[in-house]
């Protein structure tokens, strides 16, 4: 751990008793009060719903500064990685803490090629889902099932991690594309080793026996960028779910499957789908922005403006900025006119000038514009969160590995403040009124 406390402490006084709590600081200045011995020393826990104030681990993977809008993977600026790297290079970086040289990249690519197929028996699973099954539920089930087909991982989880990581990163895109093909009743398209990671995925999604899919470099580049932007985001809800399941000794596949389920929710990865539904609703309502802004502000209405706000960013999400710029480029290359893009721009403009949103630091996040690009690439709305999962996978694996290798890791097990009945006398069934 690269914590540095320089012997500084915080003082806590409870009922006149004084306790010293060490202060710790990360390499970029993150400050924390170390309460690891708090309960033992004081008898008190801390109450922190949603873990808004709690650091659950120390990590070397991703740094983000929510006030300045900075995001770095393994020390590299997201802007550089998104512009100059392949997604598989970034996956390697997250997994190995270094950018690969040519040789390393080639052998990683070869590993991914070797593991692109899924066991033929797994293909029958797809037939058993109802036709309109959610691709996120299929993804989570299939990833969990990989454990049964490739159980080597359980014997020595860390020894086989490279193989398992490559297997997962390669197979998840095959599973994702197959689930889409099944949902629209088209024959499956198998992976091809002559195509790039993103090109291969697009081909499996869109090739048909009657109409070959032409893999356009601009489309591949756009997908590559989106996956990089999604690749990690420190201790968010799904990553914490991955770590939580892994902390009990759960295998990597089960942990990733948990991450997929956590990502599915509309407050997290599901927001990209919700954004498009919201923009479509505004469009149908003759661009009645006022109505939706009023709903978002109304405390009695659960509606929120999807794609705005973030637990950590108090300014523009740097990933959102990159995506917004990419949006114009890709739509014009593909000659796509999407009325939802204009609606999105207008909505953003209104929000950025509205006191309710300004005072709460609610800015567009990564999900606000990503859906518009996915639409332009031909990806159906119900696959958007699956796309997020494909991108986030290397981050989840890197976080899982870091957690398992960290000697400080303990099983995740928060405390609670019990507010139910005090002890009650048991009443037998016959005596209950
Ligand atoms: C991301 C999100 C879950 C963060 O939640 P959080 O850190 O727990 O923040 P809170 O829910 O406490 O919100 C703080 C305040 O802003 C308001 N707020 C937050 N996001 C809002 C949104 N998208 N629309 C309207 N109001 C919002 C809350 O109502 C709250 O107002 P209050 O202080 O008057 O009660 C939240 O901003 C949200 O629901 N956004 C929409 C979903 C989304 O885009 N998710 C993708 C994230 S990448």
From TrEMBL:
Keywords: Acyltransferase, Transferase, Tricarboxylic acid cycle. The keyword Acyltransferase applies. It comes from the Bacteria. Pathway: Carbohydrate metabolism; tricarboxylic acid cycle; isocitrate from oxaloacetate: step 1/2. PROSITE patterns: CITRATE_SYNTHASE (PS00480). InterPro entries: Citrate_synth-like_lrg_a-sub, Citrate_synth-like_sm_a-sub, Citrate_synthase, Citrate_synthase_AS, Citrate_synthase_bac-typ, Citrate_synthase_sf, Citrate_synthase_typ-I. GO terms for cellular component: cytoplasm. One of its GO terms (biological process) is tricarboxylic acid cycle. The keyword Transferase applies. One of its GO terms (molecular function) is citrate synthase activity. The active site is at residues 310, 367. Belongs to the citrate synthase family. This is Citrate synthase. It comes from Desulfobulbus propionicus (strain ATCC 33891 / DSM 2032 / VKM B-1956 / 1pr3).
């Amino acid at each position: 751990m690269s914590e540095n406390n320089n012997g500084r402490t915080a003082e806590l006084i409870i009922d006149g008793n004084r306790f010293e709590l060490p202060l710790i600081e990360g390499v970029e200045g993150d400050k924390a009060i170390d309460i690891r011995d708090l309960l033992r020393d004081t008898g008190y826990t801390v109450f922190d719903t949603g873990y808004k104030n709690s650091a659950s681990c120390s990590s070397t993977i991703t740094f983000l500064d929510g006030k300045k809008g900075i995001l770095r993977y393994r020390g590299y600026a997201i802007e550089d990685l998104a512009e100059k790297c392949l997604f598989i290079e970034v996956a390697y970086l997250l997994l190995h803490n270094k950018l690969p040289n040519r040789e390393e990249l080639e052998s990683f690519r070869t590993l991914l090629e070797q593991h692109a197929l899924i066991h033929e028996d797994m293909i029958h699973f797809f037939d058993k889902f109802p036709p309109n099954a959610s691709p996120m539920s299929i993804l989570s089930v299939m990833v969990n099932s990989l454990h049964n087909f490739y159980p080597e991982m359980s014997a020595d989880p860390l020894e086989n991690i490279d193989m398992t990581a490559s297997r997962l990163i390669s197979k998840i895109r095959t599973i994702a594309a197959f689930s889409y093909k099944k949902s629209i009743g088209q024959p499956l398209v198998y992976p091809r080793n002559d195509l790039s990671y993103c090109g291969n995925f697009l081909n499996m999604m869109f090739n048909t026996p009657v109409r070959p899919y032409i893999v356009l470099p601009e489309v591949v580049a756009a997908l590559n960028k989106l996956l990089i932007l999604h690749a990690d985001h420190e201790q968010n809800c799904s990553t914490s779910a991955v770590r939580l399941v892994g902390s009990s000794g759960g295998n990597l596949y089960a942990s990733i499957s948990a991450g997929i389920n956590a990502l599915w929710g509309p407050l997290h990865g599901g927001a990209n789908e919700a954004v498009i539904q919201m923009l479509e609703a505004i469009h149908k309502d003759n661009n009645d922005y006022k109505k939706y802004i009023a709903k978002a502000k109304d405390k009695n209405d659960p509606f929120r403006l999807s794609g705005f706000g973030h637990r950590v960013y108090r300014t523009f999400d740097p990933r959102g900025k990159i995506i917004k710029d990419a949006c114009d480029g890709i739509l014009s290359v593909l000659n796509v006119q999407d009325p939802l893009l204009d609606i999105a721009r207008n909505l953003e403009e209104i929000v950025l000038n509205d006191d309710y949103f300004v005072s709460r630091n609610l800015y567009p996040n990564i999900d606000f514009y990503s859906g518009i690009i996915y639409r332009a690439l031909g990806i159906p709305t119900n696959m958007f969160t699956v796309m997020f999962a494909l991108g986030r996978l290397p981050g989840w694996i890197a976080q899982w590995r870091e957690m398992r290798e960290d000697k400080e890791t303990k099983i995740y097990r928060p405390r609670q403040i019990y507010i139910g009945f005090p002890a009650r006398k048991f009443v037998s069934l016959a005596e209950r009124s």
